[in-house]
Amino acid sequence: MPLPKDERIVALADDLLKQFQAIFGVHPGFRPAHAKGQMLTGTFKPAAGANALTKAPHIGRASTPVTVRFSNSTGLPTIPDSAPDANPRGFAIRFNLAEHVHTDIVAHSTDGFPTRDGRQFLEFLKAAAASGPDVPSPKPIEKFLGAHPAALAFVQAPKPFPTSLARQTYFGVTAFEFTNESGQTKFGRYRIVPEQGNDFLADAEAAKLSPDFHFDEIAQRVAQTPIRFKIFVQVAAPGDTTDDATVHWPEDRDQVELGTIELTQLVSDNPAEQKHIIFDPIPRVEGIAPSADPLLELRAAIYLLSGRQRRAAKTE
After folding, report:
1. Which of 134, 250, 301, 308 is 20 to 30 Å from 15 at the Cα level?
2. What is the pLDDT of residue 118?
3. What is the 8-class DSSP label of residue 312?
């Protein structure tokens, strides 16, 4: 008998967690992906006119406290910032609405995702794990990419090294349904754009970076001056695909400014707070609803499962 939908999602989430651990090893107290990170705090202030898109609570307030986490890719807590596999970088934002009440954005620095759903993503990870340097071509990952053009496009997409984590744009992977006070709904995807613009290193420069360059730099930067990002929503046009993270919308689609994040300091006791916080890719607030993208429920399940493991872990 097939499992109910919720049980299938949890089972797939568990399989993905085990596959991440098979690739990167088991690191108690750390995330299975985007393990290396740094958390900061600040405030969000909505832009004038953002309420035309959504009635979300943080849009209707003068300001909202935020907690953010920058991260490197992979499940390796000590991956050097100069390693190509450290890209794409992650950026998660928590809007602290009240005690134990929040809504989050989870983004990364490559626009899109390699697969449409979790089952394909598991196949992608297994193929990558089975394609070591001693495996003859065509390797499993080469076969997978040859059969999945969207995954090939993601792998081949440029992933340059930023001069700072504060000088890079981050993209929400999935679409959400935004509703305003008048009941008008539009689908959109988040873009988080640095106030100072994007700035990248040449590959030769990136290769010379110290192992903790980006995290040391962001700590030094915020100690000297606030770090600001503008949050936009790229709005889908009628007929645009809203349930597939591998499908890009044309760049001429409207972008609505939601507001500005201003980061002012590091979170105290960063390791403990990173271990504790569990970001949620599903908004769970009035005015912003999940789309039918199959990645959303799966990602929420993975984050919850891995978060519980992380909190329960005993680390030295």
Report:
1. 134
2. 96
3. H
